[in-house]
Write the structure tokens for this entry.
Amino acid sequence: MPTLPAVAITAITEPIRGVVRVRANASYTDAIRSVGLRPYILPVLDPRDADAMLDGMQGLLLTGGEDVDPRNFDVLPHPALGEVHAERDAFELALVRAAHERGLPTLAICRGIQIANVALGGTLVQDIASECPNALAHESGRPRDERTHEVRVTAGSRLARALGAEVLQVNSMHHQSIARAADRLTVVAHAPDGIIEGAEWTGDDWWMVGAQWHPEELTATPESWDRALFAAFASVVSRAK
């Protein structure tokens, strides 16, 4: 059997049954494996380990999780800021920069698009509900595989080509979002209220695409958009071998 391309997947650490454990939702590993890639979960390590942890990897998947600490973009915490994980922030900021230096194909999901934006010099909305009072309920509380609002994607963008669509319905489980995009990131998707739902690297030197929703939870739905996104990622990763 041929060796499958390897994809590094970021994880969280949290106490479970009295022991601190490394964890990533199985929906991420399932989605990666379903498109012919081999998933490897990365523990949260010292930032100095970040570049070496990408040795042997053909792709990187940045996953969801805790809020990004606003101190990483020189802003004081908002009263509605949720739980943060300083060690994870530091490691993933270094991972993004290492992936960029390597030109390693990167798919960034939910927190992933946020940490990528911060790593590259952008800022975040810390709490959509209080900072954007006319916004939809992006922290919807609905089932993870339920599509709750529309997203419009820029025609011709990498994200639109990957999804095979310029208008789609997505799930929604976030209260932070991109505020100011990093200089080399292009915003390519919005919700009807203007909240940024997608961004990608500008230029052909790095395939980096970010989605604010959770496509890994939607691969079993009748719509093909989210399966297509993972398939597009797999296509780029396979060419990078």
About this structure: The chain has one domain: 6-239. The first helix runs from residue 26 to 34. The domain at 6-239 is CATH 3.40.50.880 (Rossmann fold).
